[in-house]
Amino acid sequence: MRKNLISAFSNLIIAALGFLCLLAPFIFPQARNASTSNTTFPIFISLIIGLCVLILLYSAQASILDNKIIAVLGVLIAINSGLRFLENAIPGPAGFSPTFFLIILTGYFFGGHIGFLMGSMTLFVSALITGGVGPWLPGQMITAGWVGQSAALLSYPIQKIGWRNKSGEIILLAVLGVVWGMLYGVIMNLWFWPFIGAAPGQSWSQSASLLSNIQRYLVYYLTTSVIWDITRSIGNVLMMVFMAKPVLVIFKRFQQRFSYQIERQLDS
């Protein structure tokens, strides 16, 4: 129990460090000069976030001891990476992405560690396939990892309320899909927004106060990104409503078969 608490606390600290890196232009405006052509700071931030991702990946995979779970996770990552490739090859509605659906369900059913691996590795593998490797990748990986990690938090309240295998379960998963559909865009915009030349009143300013820069960011987000994120959220809801139940049934069948094999090994 104590070991689990220490692991959870260390993971929280590392995740918070990654998030603070994304917020650095708000908190430490003097950390970079006013020139938007300066690339040193965003690369430095990406390196720190990348280190956080590596530590969290190591911590997550160290807790997974069974080869069958690892194999299933590998299959799910491959499927989700393929979906992201199709998303790029055959563009759908702006902002819609099928990848968050499996990330949320995996984290919800198998737990936070596997959920984090599912999210971060999906973005990593799909970036290799689609050629999307760049300094933004560590931020995408850690944010997608948080999507899967946070989904595990729904398991306890759903079990406690008695909504397992009921419509309430799907509703809460759909709500989480809406939250992350919006929040993913909000977080990822933070990676590049301080370093681009936006319209007057929307760009980051080194001399502006924290509140002023937050207001500028909100105007920029509402002007450029909110429609994309709403579309992503709608897509997440539709996929949860129509696809979550059969996918959870498949996960449960795997779990039952896996548990049965363990019992047989113990009996022998």
Task: Describe the SSE topology.
Layout (H helix, E strand, L loop, with lengths): L1 H26 L12 H23 L4 H23 L9 H12 L1 H19 L6 H15 L3 H7 L5 H26 L17 H15 L1 H42 L1
Structure description:
The protein has 268 residues and is mainly α. It has helices at 2-27, 40-62, 67-89, 99-110, 112-130, 137-151, 155-161, 167-192, 210-224, 226-267. The protein is globular.
Largest sheet: none
Whole-number tally of structural domains: 1
CATH topology: Arp2/3 complex 21 kDa subunit ARPC3
Compute the number of helices. 10
pLDDT averaged over residues = 81
The helix fraction, in percent, is over 70%
Structural descriptors:
mainly alpha; 10 helices; globular; Arp2/3 complex 21 kDa subunit ARPC3; 0% strand; 78% helix; 268 residues
Task: Give a brief outline of the structure.
Helices cover 78% and strands 0% of the residues. It has helices at 2-27, 40-62, 67-89, 99-110, 112-130, 137-151, 155-161, 167-192, 210-224, 226-267.
